[in-house]
Amino acid sequence: MKVLFNILFIFLLLIAFVPFFRRFLFHLLVGRQLIKQQEKAYRAQQQAERARTKPGGIRVDSPPQNNSESSRFKGGEYVDYEEVK
After folding, report:
1. DSSP-assigned letter for residue 12
2. pLDDT of 17
3. In the chain, which residue ranges form alpha helices assigned H by DSSP?
4. How many CB atoms lie within 10 A of CB 80?
5. Membrane-crossing residues (predicted)?
6. Most buried by CB count within 10 Å: which residue of 9, 64, 67, 80?
7. How far is CA 73 from the centre of its chain?
8. Cα(59)–Cα(55) distance, rounded to whole angstroms?
């Protein structure tokens, strides 16, 4: 029982204080699934992009329609000025 406790204690110390061991453990538990999900999302995005464009066609992206302050600006008043030398 004491040997099991010692092994568990050493394992917890490694996780707590050794960053390399922590990164390795994280990669084993989560990293592979994370990479698989990223690849799956990338493939889905590429497939949607190919489906959206016709073969040999031209695709034009239009700028988004924003209703911000800058788009409502129609112009301003012009002020005469004199050049000072």
Report:
1. H
2. 82
3. 2-17, 19-26, 32-52, 69-72
4. 4
5. 6-30
6. 9
7. 33
8. 10
Asked if 21 contacts 14 with a C-beta cutoff of 8 angstroms, the reply is yes
Which of helix, strand or coil describes residue 59? coil
Q: What is the pLDDT of residues 52-81, one digit of tens each?
A: 766 666 667 677 666 655 556 666 777 788
φ, ψ (nearest 5 deg) of residue 10: -65, -40
Q: Which amino acid is at 84?
A: V
Angle between helices 19-26 and 2-17 (to 10 degrees): 100
Q: Rounded to an integer, what distance in angstroms lies between the CA atom of residue 70 and that of residue 62?
A: 18
Q: Are 59 and 52 in contact (CB under 8 A)?
A: yes
Query: What pLDDT, on a 0 to 100 scale, did the predictor assign at position 13?
Result: 86
Q: Are 19 and 27 in contact (CB under 8 A)?
A: no
Answer for the pair 57, 49: CB distance below 8 angstroms, yes or no.
no
The length of the chain in residues reads 85
